[in-house]
Sequence to fold (116 residues):
Amino acid sequence: QVQLVESGGGLVQPGGSLRLSCTASGSIFSPNAMGWYRQSPGKQRELVAIMTLGTTNYAGSVKGRFTISRDNAKNTVYLQMNSLKPEDTAVYYCYYHRIGLAREYWGQGTQVTVSS
Fold:
C-alpha cells in the first residue's frame, strides 16, 4: 500500500504562484512514476506533469509555467506553479505508480483556485 498526502493548494490571483507538495509513504519502490493530474468540474482528469525513468512530461497548457521536481530521499514530489491563470482552477491530485505493476495510487486532492 502507498499513501499520498498533498498540501499547498489555495486561492491565488491570476499571475500568482503556488507550490504543491506530495509525500508518499508505505511500499515505495523504484522504478516508479510520480506526478500531478488535475480535474475541473465537468471535465475529465488530465495529466499536468509527471516524472518517470529520468524523464519529465508536461501538459502543453502548463509548459513554461509549471515545474515538477522530486526529492527521492523524502519520497516527495513538488509542483511549482507560476503565472497562474483562471483556467488552472481545479482539484490537483498526486499520482504514484510503480513501473511494471498495474496498481495506481492517488492522493486525496487539493483545490487550486485562480481568481481575482
Notes: The chain is about 0% helix and 55% strand.
